[in-house]
Amino acid sequence: MARKTAPDSSRRSERSRRAILDAALELVGEVGFGKLTIEAIAARAGVGKQTIYRWWPSKAAVLFDSFLEQSGGAGAEITLLDTGDIVADAKDVLRATVDTMDDPKYALPTRALIAESQSDPELGAEVNARVLEPQLAAWTGRLRAAQEAGQIAPDADLRVAVEMLVGPIFHRWSLRTLPMSHAYADAIVDQVLGGIAMPPAPTPAPVATPGPTDS
Amino acid sequence: MARKTAPDSSRRSERSRRAILDAALELVGEVGFGKLTIEAIAARAGVGKQTIYRWWPSKAAVLFDSFLEQSGGAGAEITLLDTGDIVADAKDVLRATVDTMDDPKYALPTRALIAESQSDPELGAEVNARVLEPQLAAWTGRLRAAQEAGQIAPDADLRVAVEMLVGPIFHRWSLRTLPMSHAYADAIVDQVLGGIAMPPAPTPAPVATPGPTDS
Fold it and tell me: Which among A15, A151, B7, B41 is least buried, having the fewest CB atoms inside 10 angstroms?
């Protein structure tokens, strides 16, 4: 029997890699992070344990790659849509976030990592560095472009603004206080941009008074 | 030996009740909600198991009373400070929230409940109904008073505004993305009220034109 050629072997590797990433994501949603094992991932993916250990040092490392795969691929820099209209673009991204968080494929593993991170700050720090901060940085970048285009006030704190956009979504999703919706995403964007304070009363038109003339 | 008089017995009951509530809060922070038992609460509080079962049907019920005790007592309606200045009052409340969330006595049990609620939506719903929603309702009430006083735009969505205030705090605390601070609380309030959009250019002063006179 002929030995496998390189292209075949590489296709087979890619198939195994995908199967492992999918299995890790499914399993952590089913059993939680604490009970997730490399053995179970290998069994679900139909590969040997040694195949996983050849590519990843730990179950956490497998999981992070599973999440990164979903948000554009490991190592890929995330950038947000920029049509020049910050309100429309922010609504697009936040609506997509609502859809993703409502999808059990993504929601269950995310809940498992959040639950575990509550009592394991080191895991939480890894999740932040590998998965969350690149997304927050992409938001900050998009807001900075809007600021440079004169659509956002020059003294606005952009990091705080990002947390005002994603924080309400995360609060409602994580605590399940109310259903999420595109209308919720839109209302957040409108109020983050426009504020909720009563707009200042229009300045009264200056009373025309005779003044010194210009020469 | 004389039998205990009623006042003594009532004082002793109150002492036991406080010991039980404190023990439940400490223990859930130490071992998590899943491993919390009525037996362990009784042992830590120095009371018999039957004393706890006489007053509470479950460990969750004990815990909710522990949280309510901290936020003003079970059954007490929560209202927020109203000095007439919504910006100052909101900063006061949000700074206090930052301080509470940074206090391990409150933070550890809260993290334990949040972790458990991720995979137990029924527990999450109870936490919301008993502990969280009364606090969100108090915020909404304070914003409504400001709206009636003409400080908040009449068309602002107050529920979304509340989540824009507490969501960023919860996001940063729960995910430990950055340290919390009073400056963070202040920035959130300022940007939620004022918005981050570039203020519209001032309307040019109307050109004085001769108009119809008033009689």
Answer: B7
Average pLDDT over residues A60-70: 86
Q: What's the pLDDT tens digit per position in B65-99?
A: 888 887 665 556 688 999 999 999 999 999 999 99
For residue B149, the chain A residue with the least C-alpha distance is: A198
CATH label of the domain that carries residue A149: 1.10.357.10
Long-range (24+ apart) CB contacts under 8 A made by B40-49 are B45/B16, B45/B19, B45/B20, B46/B19, B47/B16, B47/B19, B47/B20
| DSSP conformation class of A131 | I
Query: Is A107 within 8 Å of A114 (Cβ atoms)?
Result: no
Q: What is the pLDDT of residue B145?
A: 96
User: Chain B, 155-214: which have a CB under 8 Å from a chain A CB?
Assistant: 156-157, 159-161, 163-164, 166-172, 174-178, 184, 187-188, 191-199, 202-203, 205-206, 208
**Largest separation between any pair of C-alpha atoms in chain B:** 101
Asked if B52 and B42 count as a contact pair (C-beta separation under 8 A), the reply is yes
Has residue A167 been placed in a domain? yes
What beta strand segments (E) does A10-116 contain? none
Question: Do B128 and A168 make contact, defined as CB atoms within 8 angstroms?
Answer: no
Residue B27 with chain A: CB contacts under 8 Å? none
Q: Measured between CB atoms, does B116 come within 8 Å of chain A?
A: yes
User: Which of A150, A167, A191 lies closest to B198 in CB terms?
Assistant: A150
DSSP calls for A165-200: HHHHHHHHHHHT-S---HHHHHHHHHHHHH-SBPPP
| CB-based contacts of A58-62 (< 8 A; 24+ apart in sequence) | A59/A24, A59/A33, A60/A123, A60/A126, A62/A20, A62/A21, A62/A24, A62/A38
Q: Are residues B109 and B47 in the same domain?
A: no
% helix / strand / coil in chain B, to the nearest 5?
Answer: 65, 0, 30
pLDDT of residue B11: 81
Q: Measured between alpha carbons, how far is B75 from B69 in angstroms, rounded to an integer?
A: 10
Q: CA B209: distance to chain centroid? A: 57
* Domains: count for chain B: 2
Which residues in chain A (70-109) have CB-CB distances under 8 A to chain B? none
Q: Are residues B177 and B111 in the same domain?
A: yes
3-state SS, one letter per residue, for B27-52: HHHHHCCCCCCHHHHHHHHCCCHHHH
Q: How far is Cα A97 from Cα A30, in angstroms, rounded to an integer?
A: 22
